[in-house]
Amino acid sequence: MAKVLLLIALCVLPALVSATRMVKNPLVVQGQVYCDRCRAGFETPKTRNMAGAKVKVECSDRKTGQVVYKKEGYTDSTGHYKVVVSEDHLDEICDAILVKSSQPDCAKMSPGRERARVILTNFNGIASNTRFANAMGFMADEADAGCAEIMKLYQEEDV
């Protein structure tokens, strides 16, 4: 019986402790959410940051793909968000993900801009606890006036 208890103490308890790796200084996922007023699929001079948009940080097991962590947050008045993550997610794939727009006329997620990969571990050589996610965006239902002229600026000229 003593050997079994010793085996549990040496093998099982460390595994349980490492399964929830709390970090001394929490990691902070930081990013911004915008409304693409020109429906360009990227940021233009007409793009506006979106206050009150709902985002989440989600981590999945690298092998099974099963979601093992989820935490939600909202953008502030400038369209920026910060989501504090207290656990280390070394062997997981983590993303910042758009959840919901705060603007009914700009609620369709921009394809390819609805999520941003983030690395949520302290075991990768990054000194800072802040993890910056790429900007994520929604598209307006209809392009604003003046967008056609802006889009012409992005077109290549024939040589």
UniProtKB/TrEMBL annotation:
Query: Signal peptide position in this chain?
Result: 1-19
Question: Keyword annotations for this protein?
Answer: Disulfide bond, Signal
Q: Pfam families from the entry?
A: Pollen_Ole_e_1
Membership in a protein family:
Belongs to the Ole e I family.
Q: What is this protein called?
A: Major pollen allergen Lol p 11
Name the source organism.
Answer: Theobroma cacao
